[in-house]
UniProtKB/TrEMBL annotation:
Transmembrane regions: none
Record's keyword terms, sorted: Hydrolase, Metal-binding
Ranges in a coiled coil: none
Top-level division of the source organism's lineage: Bacteria
Keyword Nucleus attributed: no
The protein's name: Phosphotriesterase
Pfam families, alphabetized: PTE
PANTHER family: PHOSPHOTRIESTERASE-RELATED, PHOSPHOTRIESTERASE-RELATED PROTEIN
Organism lineage string: Bacteria, Bacillati, Actinomycetota, Actinomycetes, Kitasatosporales
The family this protein is said to belong to: Belongs to the metallo-dependent hydrolases superfamily. Phosphotriesterase family.
UniProt key word Hydrolase: yes
Length: 318
């Protein structure tokens, strides 16, 4: 298999070295998305309507905070459009990593029922090796591969197994969607049972689960613990997120936390009155600093950790 070189990220506009990522990253975002199951168009980021607003936000964050990287976890069945991602990345001058995989069961595509684990693995490996569709753009991460509930359903388990096998075969890392934070330990057991090392796994939406014991167990295993819905106050308050993050760090696991906002509908965009992609920088990180975080810790959480997750390698602090 043609695996990425050490310390190299596969971005939609070409490979970049980890060393070239000098500023913070957003570890779990959506720039283009279609999760509309109600027909109301709410759970959508349509590039024809919203690309300019998304680009403007990322450009502003690059200029103000040095934003250098976005991990874009829109995968198969979620309205993925990697050509639009490449256009946004070029215009915003921010590296964007695209994803492959399948979301949780309500968004599964027909091939999941029709194929076994090995066939699904082949679908993912083909995209990673040859590119998505006819674009030639290759994913740089698997995700957000999902489940809901405390234990994955049979189709979700099939997809998680295929994702783990594809990750092993191609040298990529894997990010999960754990609905409302539940089921992360079961996801990790399934993924590592397929031979994927825990340090190549990020368990998603753990800031929605008020259970520090689970977070500590995930981190102690070597997996990354994603606090990736920062600012989504209808799900959880940032005060609770901060408490959970501080607890994890006080337990000695600062090197296993990932941060992001998971912007997943146009109503979250700044120009539509939402918190925007910059909420983490403008609101949450200042609160973390007020709680005692210094520049080195902020850099660990927002740059070195996501780079280590994506590459599986350590990243120099300078």
């Amino acid at each position: 298999m043609n695996q990425p070189a050490p310390h190299t990220l596969r971005a939609v506009t070409g490979d970049v070295t980890a060393a070239s990522v000098r500023g913070p990253a957003l570890a779990h975002e959506h720039l283009v998305l279609d999760l509309d199951q109600r027909g109301d168009g709410a759970a959508v980021l349509d590039p024809r309507r919203h690309a300019a607003a998304v680009t403007a936000e990322l450009s502003a964050l690059r200029e103000e905070f040095g934003l250098s990287l976005v991990v874009e976890l829109t995968c198969r069945g979620m309205g993925r459009d990697v050509r639009a991602l490449a256009a946004i990345a070029r215009a915003a001058q921010v590296a964007v990593v695209a994803a492959t995989g399948w979301y949780y069961e309500p968004f599964h595509t027909p091939e999941i029922d029709a194929c076994d684990v090995e066939q699904l693995t082949e679908v993912l490996v083909r995209e990673i090796e040859e590119g998505i569709g006819t674009t030639g753009i290759r994913p740089g991460v698997l995700g957000e591969i999902g489940s809901h509930g405390d234990v994955p359903t049979a189709p979700e388990a099939k997809v998680l197994r295929a994702g783990a096998r594809a990750a092993r075969a191609t040298g990529l890392s894997l990010a999960t969607h754990a609905q409302l934070g539940r089921g992360g330990l079961a996801q990790l057991e399934l993924l590592t049972g397929e031979g994927l090392p825990a340090h190549r796994v990020s368990i998603g939406h753990q800031d929605l689960l008020d259970d520090p014991g689970v977070h500590r167990e995930l981190a102690a295993s070597g997996a990354y613990v994603a606090f990736d819905t920062v600012g989504k106050s209808s799900y959880q308050s940032d005060r609770t997120r901060l408490r959970l993050l501080l607890d994890l760090m006080e337990a000695g696991h600062a090197d296993r936390a990932l941060l992001s906002c998971d912007i997943s509908r146009h109503g979250y965009l700044l120009d539509e009155g939402g918190q925007g992609y910059g909420h983490m920088f403008r609101s949450f990180l200042p609160e973390l600093r007020a709680a005692g975080a210094d520049d080195d810790l902020i850099d660990l959480l927002t740059r070195r950790n996501p780079l280590r997750f994506l590459t599986g390698a350590s990243v120099e602090e300078n």
